[in-house]
Amino acid sequence: MFSSPASITPWPSKIRVAVADDRTLFREALVHLLGDRDRVDVVAAGPATAAGDLIAQHQPDVLLLGAPDGAAAAARGLAGAGAATRVVVIGCGRDDLPGPVLTAGAAGFVAFDAQPDELVAAIGAVHSGERVPASAASDDDPVAVLSPRELETLRFLAVGMTNREIAMQLGISVKTVDTHRGHVLKKLRLRNNSDLTRFALQHGLVELGSQG
User: How many Å apart are CA 32 and CA 36, to the nearest integer?
Assistant: First the structure.
């Protein structure tokens, strides 16, 4: 059985994966592909339009999202749908790029023409807390320098949640939340929560009026 050399962090016994894509044949092909992998357990599959429901009902570790009509918009629509679920977008459009998809809230981006082993490696990587591809960070995409958990922390802070509330939402300690906040401020060169909120609004990470 294949073990991806790109996945260095030890995987758990099973990574629970849901597949969301409106194209039935493509969706079923992904389910079949992943069903042959020892470290992956496909717990649900359905159309991309029901991706939020799949997350809510099955709480997968990773959601694979096929988004032929706009990868970044689809990823942004799932932001906050499940704090513990990492979203990997399979880019299908000609203009799909990893930077905007990661900025929109996805943890990973895999091109439509990627090899199966690349997809499996991406699942393991995002489940371990990495961003895929890590090289997507650039001056034009500043959010890509954040880890998935740091991005979640930024979103929650931007809507006015306290460190304690975020800790309860993510199932981590208040101290860890404060550490994430410090990393976000340093990486984005911001000073305080007001700056975080303005940054999140400017980059479309939260909706205007969603602040508490």
Answer: 7
Could you read off the pLDDT of 85-124 as tens digits, one per residue? 899 998 876 556 777 777 777 888 888 888 888 899 999 9
Closest CA to 64 of 100, 101, 38: 101
Tokens matching residue 172: 């981590």
Spell out the domains of the chain, with CATH numbers in brackets: 15-135 (3.40.50.2300), 145-202 (1.10.10.10)
Tokens of 135: 């090289």
Q: How far apart are CA 131 and CA 136, in angstroms?
A: 9
DSSP state of 16: E
Q: Write the burial class of residue 50 (CB in 10 Å: 0-12 exposed, 13-18 middle, 19+ buried).
A: middle
- Cis-peptide, bond into residue 133, ω within 30° of zero: yes
> Do 14 and 7 meet the contact criterion of CB atoms below 8 Å apart?
no
The pTM of the full predicted model, rounded to 2 decimals, is 0.62
CA–CA distances in Å: residue 51 to residues 133, 158, 180: 22, 24, 27
Alpha-carbon gap, residue 116 to 114, rounded angstroms:
7
Q: Which residues pair with 63 in a beta bridge?
A: 18, 87
Position of tokens 């954040």? 146
DSSP-assigned beta bridge partners for residue 52: none
Name the residue among 153, 186, 155 with its Cα closest to residue 167: 153
